[in-house]
Amino acid sequence: NKDTKFENAVKSMMLHVGENPKREGLLETPKRVRKAYEFIYGGYKENPKEILQKALFTTTNDEMVLVKDIEFYSTCEHHLLPIIGKAHIAYIPDGKVVGLSKIPRMVNVFARRLQIQEEMTEQIADEIEKQTEALGVAVIIKAEHFCMTARGVKEHESEMMTSVVRGMFRDEPATKAEFFSLLNNMKGMK
């Protein structure tokens, strides 16, 4: 079955790096890795559209909504190494707002897939834009990539920042300035 195939692949990886999969401490490792992967890559089994649509509410509010410091853990699709970061998301409603807890849940659906940060930033912006029909969307992601810090590159403490700005955030300098001002002045951004 597919569980056995996965676990055998983990044993092959252990052999490849010079370990003995029959060593006492490693006997259950293939099963533990399989279960961990089922969680880590659970984003493939979830639909971000459904998450957001379950919590869309009618509103007359047209002021910026900002959700900051959404912690996420992802995996680099090039090296299968961790990406750990925070997402900051803002949108200007046009008749619809999203329940507060759904935005972090939606971020984690995309994070729990093989990713590159640039595409994840776009995917999050696309989904919010589609589901809320917002007048503007801004997404900033700041993350540490273990393919930089744990491999031969050894760039410790280097982070990558990506951003997507659409609608009013792109077209109206005052809206963009307000977003960055709020982001910089809210606790924890510095």
Structure in words:
This protein is an alpha+beta fold. Helix content is 42%, strand content 26%. Strands 5-2-3-6-7 form a five-stranded mixed β-sheet. The chain has a two-stranded antiparallel ribbon with strand order 1-4. The mean pLDDT is 93.
What spatial form do the alpha-carbon principal axes imply?
elongated
Taking strands numbered 1, 2, ... along the chain, how are they ordered across the largest sheet? 5-2-3-6-7
* Class per helix and strand makeup: alpha+beta
Mean pLDDT: 93
Tell me the span between the first and last alpha carbons.
Answer: 49 Å
- In which range does the helix fraction lie? 40-55%
Q: How would a textbook summarize the main sheet?
A: 5 strands, mixed
- The low-confidence parts are none
What is the radius of gyration computed over CA atoms, rounded to a whole number of angstroms?
20 Å
Give me the strand/helix succession.
HHHEEEEHEHEHEHH
How many individual β-strands? 7
Query: Proportion of β residues?
Result: 25-35%
Number of helices: 8
